[in-house]
## 1
Amino acid sequence: MKNLYINTRFFFALTGVGMLYVLAFFFPFFMIVAHILLLLCFLMAVVDYLLIFNQKEGILAQRILPEKLSNGDENSVKIDVKNNYGFTINARIIDEIPFQFQKRDFMIKKQIESGKNTYFQYTLEPKERGEYHFGSLNIYASSPVGFISKRFKFQKDANLPSYPSFIHLRKYELMALQSEFLLGGIKKIRKLGHTMEFEQIKEYVPGDDIRTINWKATSKTNRLMVNQFQDEKAQRIFMLIDKGRTMKMPFNGLSLLDYSINATMALSHIILKKGDRAGMMTFSKKTENKIAAENKSGQLKKISEALYNINTNFFESDFNRLYQDVKYSINQRSLILLFTNFETLDGLNRQLKYLRGIAKNHLLVVVFFKNAELQTLIHKNPESMQEIYDEIIAEKFEFEKKLIIQELRKYGIYTVYTLPENLNIDVINKYLEIKARGIL
């Protein structure tokens, strides 16, 4: 009996019968009609009970989950329901989804014909990494009478990890491998390299490096010939992620740290596909989660596992410690993308000497964020004195961000200043730009 549920249709029917009993006080004729309808309601309830409960496995269902959730993306959850009854049922599906989503009114209504399978899906968008616990899949089935429902429970427990965003990796890969990468206005060009990886011998034209002249080929052809080498690959690219208090700021449900983690995942995928070596580390009071720059088959999985357990804290990040660890652990010149956030010029100046120290031996790109709410205030047409005041303050903060960019450029430090939702595209674009210009 614990799976027996009485539907509202039965109570509506009893309410109608009760109204007839009230009318019977004034019109006695309705008393007989009320008695007949009351008896009919209970008979229909008994018939409904027999129809629903005479078959033990009237409904079969399963929840089909992905191996893991992609943080910040829409993840599909599929449900397969089969009706083994000899009649069409009305089903209410209530899936006990993880508490992190705070969906307390989740319910799907479906009409399923006899002997048919029905597939449907819904989407979940996690906003934090970690374990997500799914409860039971509950299906309440009722016959065409609709007085009684029977509950079927399936798959009582399921745990699913949420990893840094990986769903769109293939999309970014296709964009990066095109002959022209136009997402940010950057046209990919062919850059001749100077490694020992030989490509061909060609005739000298003005502008070629005279150091690459092939004297043996020149003597044979009686024309100046030069060696042409392939573009250098296997360059080291490191992503440094700030875990300090400035990265706790949320936008659209995700913290700046989560946006940086997702961008690191997407960029690492592109780096490995382009033949370079991807590495990473995180820092706050100390450096952690160090992954050496490699281009091995399991490198992306290693980076994903390291990113999975990263959490921010409320400490101020120690850039002095970061500088020392970079100096001793990254020995060869590398491209370093530093994911952090500076809100004021004073905040930058406190750390500038350490950034300059890193930039002496490496190509440093500082990635920091536009405040989406300030951008809204700047582009909003003010209609009151308060809105004018808010716009002026927002423009002041935006101007200070521009001063930060100028100060970094003064010391040869590149920047990516972007909205959080555009971070993946912008950092990939900057990496491809640096590769195309051959400045690493």
Note: The CA atoms of residues 236 and 277 lie 5 Å apart.
## 2
Amino acid sequence: MATDSAVNKEKLVQDFKLVVSDAEELLRATASQAGEKVSVVRERVQESLHRAKIKLAEAEEVLIDSGRQAARATDEYVHDHPWKAVGIAAGIGLVIGLLIGRR
């Protein structure tokens, strides 16, 4: 369940990056448009993009940190309980083998 959450967060970050890049491209495409209203809107969008990039960087850092913590906890568990880890891995392998064998 935790890995599903991490995968969803990573997908969200990737999607958000795509939206930011599309918005930047839109700003570049409308750079030649003149007018006071267009300039005001462009400035607001640029500020919003700047804030979004900062939040995106923070979200990525949180994901990286949580991944490192999970890896560290797993490593410590395996070192503390090596035979349990081998048994769990063998059990998971057996279940996967049975599921594949049914097809």
Note: The radius of gyration is 23 Å.
## 3
Amino acid sequence: MINIPKGTKDVLPSESYKWQYVENIARETAELFHLKEIRTPVFEHTELFQRGVGDTSDIVTKEMYTFKDKGDRSITLKPEGTAGAVRSFIENGMGNGVLPAKMYYIIPAFRYERPQAGRLREFHQFGVEIFGAKGAQTDAEAVLAADTLLKKLGLKVQLYINSIGCPACRAAYNQALKAFFAPHLDGLCYDCKTRYEKNPLRLLDCKEEGCKRVNADAPKMLDYLCEACKAHFDEFKNYLELAGVSYEIDPRIVRGLDYYTRTVFEFVSTSIGAQGTVCAGGRYDKLIEELGGNPTPAVGFAAGIERLLIVMQQTGVDIPQPKTPTVYLAGMDGECRKKAFELCAALRRNGVFAELDHMERSVKAQFKYADKIGAKFVAVIGGNELAEGAMNVKNMATGESERVALEDAVVYFQNK
């Protein structure tokens, strides 16, 4: 017996309709905001993530699935969607087209981390990227798209926002952070001691309780914003208010990826028993240039589909059940089964959801099976019916039956 790899999960046929529901809502939301789908490879050159995600991030230092291919090239299963979308934007010259370039993706992503509730080694994301627009209006539109998605899914969430400035004002803030944390270094975790030297901003993102207690009193980035970044943040807040999206400012939001600049945001579930971030994103104006493209502003977000489904389940969101067959065709013997097969094919060609027996069950067993799969009608074809060119149709809800000519079957069931 070969078992599923640790940290992965089968989505069974009995559960896949829930995933399809979330994905369909995501696609509907994307269409509403004029976002076009982009599909990038599941694996990329490792350098893309080292340069794009950042070599100080936990993803790059601890969590990537990296291997050598037969050409001795270092390849990585993508741990997130933004870097691949940016690579495609540059490589395919999308910057020379109509801007902004607005796109979305629904992808599998891979991170080698400890499996836990809502976190798997293979997981799935719905992500949005908007390339080419620098104004705070675009930040607000990205937030509005995420807010629309979450509300369509029936989730109760709170939006938290922050600004982490630009490289110019962040330099002074990093110095202030280092000065603050210097007396506390001995009490910080191993990772934070490394972050202290390489990327002090990431100290605020640590989940270790000891580190969280220390950084509670750390300086706030908002106090160090340059005039341009402060104006951008104020404008961003104004656009959210114009769109009717409520928010709270959380100076501790920094995001775990190195490429973010200025606006960062998170949507957190507010339902009892379902606390946790369900969607996060922000602006990353330097990433396209960092990966070899022309300087291009960008903003985006991502939501984990597994996490969304968990929170929807925890909070009792009703996901519509999948459609059930309009009619189940039951044949009594070999010749009748052939006619049922022929009729089933004709019904399906004409858009009728039809099913039939593949297990050579008795008619009684076929009725039981039809009931289990929720068929609205059962059409029985026996020897007499076959001779008459008819079928006996039973309404499974009312128990009523009527005789219907086989030649009228398509029109009959199209109207049911």
Note: The chain has 15 helices and 16 strands.
## 4
Amino acid sequence: MTQLTIRLPANGTEIARLQASLEAFAAEHSLSQEGLFKLNLVLDELVTNAISYGFNGIARPQIHLQITLDQGYAHVCLRDNGQPFNPFSEAPEPDLDTPLEQRRIGGLGIHFVRSMLETFHYQRDGDWNVITMGLPLGPGGDPTHYTR
């Protein structure tokens, strides 16, 4: 098993550092472009949402990320000390049947995240939001399947 741990101050400039760290990690461990794309998509959406909406009134906002690779599978733990928020149950469900120009804003990013994940779980641990996820990194699999 291989592991990457990243601690980020919660500001938008850190997204580029997160992406650079993921790219270096992927290259070091021969992760496919598809696997890197999936990790980037999931983590960019969740971290950006936390930074954009989760830290109002938080004195020292922090984000901790741990990724463990094991036989083409990523086990991800994302922790932040922002306001309590479960993106999997509290984000609005997008209305995919309404024409694009008539849709409400919100929820589509989390919808895409769910479609990439095989498993996901949210819990509040003291002052921390904790999201654990399982993400298959190889080809195949059903990208529309997800479990809670």
Note: The first strand starts at residue 2 and ends at 9.
